[in-house]
TrEMBL record:
<keyword id="KW-0444">Lipid biosynthesis</keyword>
<keyword id="KW-1133">Transmembrane helix</keyword>
<comment type="function">
    <text>Catalyzes the formation of CDP-2,3-bis-(O-geranylgeranyl)-sn-glycerol (CDP-archaeol) from 2,3-bis-(O-geranylgeranyl)-sn-glycerol 1-phosphate (DGGGP) and CTP. This reaction is the third ether-bond-formation step in the biosynthesis of archaeal membrane lipids.</text>
</comment>
<dbReference type="GO" id="GO:0043338">
    <property type="term" value="F:CDP-2,3-bis-(O-geranylgeranyl)-sn-glycerol synthase activity"/>
</dbReference>
<dbReference type="InterPro" id="IPR002726">
    <property type="entry name" value="CarS_archaea"/>
</dbReference>
<keyword id="KW-0548">Nucleotidyltransferase</keyword>
<comment type="pathway">
    <text>Membrane lipid metabolism; glycerophospholipid metabolism.</text>
</comment>
<keyword id="KW-1003">Cell membrane</keyword>
<feature type="transmembrane region" description="Helical">
    <location>
        <begin position="127"/>
        <end position="145"/>
    </location>
</feature>
<keyword id="KW-0472">Membrane</keyword>
<dbReference type="GO" id="GO:0005886">
    <property type="term" value="C:plasma membrane"/>
</dbReference>
<keyword id="KW-0812">Transmembrane</keyword>
<keyword id="KW-0443">Lipid metabolism</keyword>
<feature type="transmembrane region" description="Helical">
    <location>
        <begin position="50"/>
        <end position="67"/>
    </location>
</feature>
<comment type="similarity">
    <text>Belongs to the CDP-archaeol synthase family.</text>
</comment>
<keyword id="KW-1208">Phospholipid metabolism</keyword>
<protein>
    <recommendedName>
        <fullName>CDP-archaeol synthase</fullName>
        <ecNumber>2.7.7.67</ecNumber>
    </recommendedName>
</protein>
Amino acid sequence: MVVSLVAGALWAMLPAYVPNNVAVLAGGGRPIDGGRTVDGRRLLGDGKTWRGTAAGTVAGVALAMGLDAVRPGAAAALGATLPSFPLRAAVGLALGAMLGDIGASFVKRRLDRERGAAVPGLDQLDFVVGALALAALLAPSWTLSTFSPARLAVILVATPLLHVTTNVGAYLLGLKSEPW
Ligand code: CTP
Ligand code: MG
Ligand code: K
């Protein structure tokens, strides 16, 4: 029961968790804002690049397809009900996660926070909001039936913990310049 709930919730969000981490590995090159500033502050900053965004999105969608392929076996092994990912849902989760993170950078620059500055709360949940919003837009009925209130509750608690853990790990491995 609990295993099924937690496994189903995390499985549903995996295509949204992976894009940010892949962007860290693949990032670099031309920033999305092309260096543009508004009132002396960068629109998004050098931390949001075309390459990172594209790689993260593609990785999230590819992961969703991989999860679909192994779902029957994983569901049986875990004794859990696991969601499958129609393409629209996969794109919504992966691209939405990237857009949520980009939106947060826009907000951070308006608040005068430099690239890399930590904004607790926003940093851990920006991509969750983006992923759920774009999934709801592209695959409304899938999103409604997949993200039950119980799964959403698990996601809201588990995501910040996972986010903090992976970022500290990436920092310790030298992959990221700040531990958040
Ligand atoms: N990254 C990227 N493109 C994105 C998101 C991330 O290239 N759309 C890469 C960048 O190299 C970035 C790193 O991943 O520096 C870490 O991502 P993140 O912590 O989101 O960016 P920050 O550099 O901290 O910038 P910001 O303050 O704007 O969040
Ligand atoms: Mg950061
Ligand atoms: K971020």
